[in-house]
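Methods, example record. To illustrate the input and output format used throughout this study, we show the complete record for Cytochrome d ubiquinol oxidase subunit II. The sequence lines were provided to the predictor; the line carrying structure tokens was produced by it.
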Amino acid sequence: MMDFAHWLPIIWGVILIAAISIYVILDGFDLGIGMLFAFERDQSKRDVMINTIAPVWDGNETWMVLGGAVLYGVFPGAYATLLPAFYLPIIVMLAALIFRGVAFEFRVMTKGTARARHWDLGFIAGSAIASFCQGAVLGGVIQGASR
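The corresponding predicted structure is encoded as:
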């Protein structure tokens, strides 16, 4: 009988890479829409942009959660090295994603009022800040993370 135990880290590594890649692709689309939002002044086109991502935007973060859970559960050494090195950009990114989600929902609720503009700005800022933090984490990983 073959011993598959030596294949487990490789299998979980592929699952981790897949989860992170799917998150980057799918949520990259959402974050891109959020940043392009700043350059579109026509409210009807902004509504189309929002309606484009509305069915899937909140589900995309599930892939990030899966990636973090796999990193924590399967590769605790990597988790213990990466998270302390990137606490600040990760916490800021999570706060921006939460604020972005709140702005997304409240924008719809306040449509046509003066407050809708504020939620539009929150959606734009949350998207830009989250994207910047993801780039900072990726840059840090490429340069080499340390405590």
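Annotations derived from this record:
The chain is about 80% helix and 0% strand.
The mean pLDDT is 89.
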